[in-house]
Amino acid sequence: MSRLWDKGAPLDERVLRFTAGEDFSLDERLIAYDIRASIAHAEMLLEQGLLARADLEAIRGGLTALGQAHAQGQWHVELPDEDGHTALERRLTERIGPAGGRVHLGRSRNDQVLAALRLYLRDALEDLSAGAIAVAQALERLGAREQTTALPGYTHMQQAMPSSVPLWAGGFAAEIRDDAEALRHVHRRLGRNPLGSAAGYGTPGLPLDREATREKLGFASVQEPVTAVQLSRGKAEAELLFHVTILLQDVGRLAADVLLFCTEEFGFVRLPEAFTTGSSIMPQKRNPDLFELIRGRSATAQACLLEVLAICAKLPSGYQRDLQLLKFPLFRAIDLALETLGILPAALDALSFRTERIRLDPAIHAAEEANRLVVREGIPFREAYRRVAAKLKGSG
Length: 396
Ligand code: ARG
Prior knowledge:
Bound molecules: arginine
CATH architecture of the largest domain: Up-down Bundle
Largest sheet: 2 strands, antiparallel
Strand content: 5-15%
């Protein structure tokens, strides 16, 4: 099989394998989005008098059918295709004949991949924030279930102030909701239409309507000038992965608390057997591996973020094939985050507090006592603090 850019001399098989790398399989998830963008592009070509109606109908019908067949698993992007964009044009042309060769007028895979990625990331963002909200809701349910369960509040891992399960869970819920909100800010970077920038320098000699594809695909603006488009690749990715990392760090810190609360020494929390795993040697053990792996996941997200930043740093302007490498860490972090957010609500719903094991040091109310003294007697806080400290020392 040859590629659409092949012009005679065959590509060395080893070079194909190296340059396509994992790209052909990574592009699987972009197929539906590439089709949507390709149809918008073809419609715009018709409106500009650059494509005949019959050809547009054939392209639209062919791409739609290819999309449906792909969604049903009837075909996949193959290594010799190099990537998803090429696979689609090849299959389209096989299906509808020479009209398939008209769809690529005024575009390049360089703007095509950005359009497909932005459309995909728009959906991924919504899935991620919905996953985060579901975790926050599970925390709020936990707080409501354990409305009256007191907890010590810790600073320096020492009992500090009285707290409660709703207060503990509510803090995480609020931060995770905030992370979900922050994720949505990435829409700003994703809202720019890259189509029409083609390889990165526009389409001299061709009257394209970038506003028309903008409108059809729901982008907020046309990305201008054309040279900005390739410079922006990797930035929405980095911003998204930053927020994913922050989100997974919050989720990981929640897991760290749960793991502490599950220890024999704390014993605050009980996990049902179905949510713990066993040991191959110690018959008595039930392990909270689920929460440990949740805790560990933020490391991968952070590494993916660093990889994305490092790939783009110091690249000269214009398209560079390095940019293809962004997809692996991007998809990896998104998949891990969705998987983590997906399991967490069920785990939180399964968790209960063992009130009989939760003991608050009586001295935990010391700050409250000092505050009350100030309110009652109008003395400086420092004096009240000393009085309460002296009393505690005397009684201790
Ligand atoms: N797979 C490529 C990427 O993700 C698509 C663009 C390829 N462009 C090229 N000129 N080889 O960057």
